[in-house]
Write a structure and sequence with these properties.
The protein is α/β, with parallel strands linked by helices and 339 residues long. Helices cover 40% and strands 17% of the residues. The structure holds nicotinamide-adenine-dinucleotide (NAD) and uridine-diphosphate-N-acetylglucosamine (UD1).
């Protein structure tokens, strides 16, 4: 079985390619490298004992490039990671986000359909859930009211796939809603390599610990949470990657649309993360309390029950593992793939 992985050289994509190879799938990647390095896939090949990943440096919106891939390979499944993901940038450049994220999805599905490939896993996000839900979030919790264009591209991306599956019962569509992916492969060879100043907490913590940043700003300590700082559901990226392997098995014999949360079901605060990182790695993470970040919710965590029961998947890595593996990657590659 061959899986086409769009955005496969990125953070989650590279870890997923490795888990797919380990599970016996063949993998083909398309990525335009707008936010990743080709080194990640070279390292995945190394970790997979020298298995080869055919790589196409192209944009998923490029119909001719996609068609060439489908002509050169028999693709059984697609996992669609390719997308822009910086929330602040999406507010400043909404058209770039709608163009990249939605046109890529539509071109991809069109080319897939015309080659008879109708099984797709889509990278959605907890950001599609409306802010007024009770915790934990289950797949039936209310969606919408997104606070930024990035979030809307995920909401609309899910809807496009849902409508395709409704129109043609041959399609199998799996919308996976990720909570907060962190960590790295235990080898320290692949990991998250933000090109600019990180927006997300974990890369900011590790870049602070290694001295690339002066201190972490903790965005608000007056939320209604146990220590006043924001609470999130952090999940090890290798667990997340394995969730995709479980989703492919499910799609083999299920048609229509399905939705699964990929999270641990446990929430940790910003200060929990700082202290866990310091303890796991014996390093200091200097921090200062700063104003709240606009658009942030106090507490977000998943119910992973449906994924456990239906996919037979659950997260296995602890918070300590997430902190240790992030630091291992960061300390072996202080400047990411540039080293
Ligand atoms: P990433 O930026 O590391 O990976 C995305 C990859 O897609 C990059 O390699 C980039 O070069 C490529 N890409 C972007 N647009 C493309 C296009 N038009 N054509 C070809 N390649 C393109 O990000 P990631 O963290 O690995 O995220 C993967 C997916 O998961 C994204 O869709 C993201 O929105 C989603 N997601 C991520 C998180 C997170 O916290 N990391 C949370 C929820 C959802
Ligand atoms: C953010 C995005 C969300 C996106 C997700 C994954 C916003 C409002 N939400 O989610 O749409 O799907 O990333 O890309 O941007 N924090 C600090 N200091 C920092 C960074 C973060 O205190 O320098 C805090 C935040 O306030 C939050 C927690 O850490 O409480 C986690 O933040 P982050 O990693 O950005 O993830 P989310 O806010 O959950």
């Amino acid at each position: 079985m061959t899986v086409l992985v769009t955005g496969g050289s990125g953070y989650i994509g590279s870890h997923t390619c490795l888990e797919l190879l380990n599970a016996g799938y063949d993998v083909v990647v398309i990525d335009n490298l707008c936010n990743s390095s080709p080194k990640s896939l070279q390292r995945v090949e190394e970790l997979a004992g020298g298995k080869h990943i055919p790589f196409y440096q192209a944009d998923v919106r490029d119909r001719a490039a996609l068609t060439k891939i489908f002509e050169e390979h028999t693709i059984d499944f697609v996992i669609h990671f390719a997308g822009l993901k910086a929330v602040g940038e999406s507010v400043a450049k909404p058209l770039a986000y709608y163009d990249n994220n939605l046109n890529a999805t539509m071109t991809l599905c069109d080319v897939m359909g015309s080659h008879g490939c109708k099984r797709i896993v889509f990278s959605s996000s907890a950001t599609v859930y409306s802010g007024d839900n009770k915790m934990p979030l289950s797949e039936t919790s209310k969606t919408g009211n997104c606070t930024n264009p990035y979030g809307w591209t995920k909401y609309m991306g899910e809807q496009i796939l849902r409508d395709i599956a409704k129109a043609d019962p041959e399609w199998s569509v799996c919308n996976l809603r990720y909570f907060n992916p962190v960590g790295a492969h235990e080898s320290g060879l692949i990991g998250e390599d933000p090109k600019d100043i990180p927006n997300n907490l974990m890369p900011y913590i590790s870049q602070t610990a290694i001295g690339r940043r002066d201190h972490l700003s903790v965005f608000g300590n007056d939320y209604d949470t146990p220590d006043g700082t924001g609470v999130r559901d952090y999940i090890h990226v290798v667990d997340l990657a394995r969730g995709h392997v479980a989703a492919l098995s499910y799609l083999q014999d299920h048609k229509g649309e399905c939705i699964f949360n990929l999270g641990t079901g446990v929430g940790y605060s910003v200060l929990d993360m700082v202290h866990a990182f310091e303890t796991a790695n014996g390093v200091d993470v200097p921090y200062e309390i700063a104003p709240r970040r606009p658009g942030d919710l106090p507490t977000v965590y998943s119910s992973p029950e449906k994924s456990r029961q239906v996919l037979g998947w659950e997260a296995t890595y602890s918070l300590e593992d997430m902190c240790r593996d992030t630091w291992h990657w960061q300390s072996l590659n202080p400047n990411g793939y540039q080293d």
